[in-house]
Amino acid sequence: MKKKARADKNYKFTGKKHSGPGTAALIFSFAPLILFFYAVAVSYQRGGQAPEKIGCIGIAAMLAALMTLWISIREARKENILKKVPVTGAVLSVLMLTGWMAVYVIGWIGL
Description:
mainly alpha
């Protein structure tokens, strides 16, 4: 029985590098997550009657999530980079946008 070639062990040597802006977008995409938990905690403590500051924080967090989504998608389209970091940032940004939109829709319809 022949031994498998060394290339069959899923080793991959490549010159690809991590994208700097993609990494920054991934790190920055945690900001809307932190702001989301803060806003939900304050709103819960006040019985659903959060101050206007929380609404402003929510809008800023949504804008930050949109920005990190845009940067992540732009970086994921580039050639010769590792795609995991920008794709992870894009997924996290989409989740945060969905979460913030859900909070605003629930607030508007009064659930």
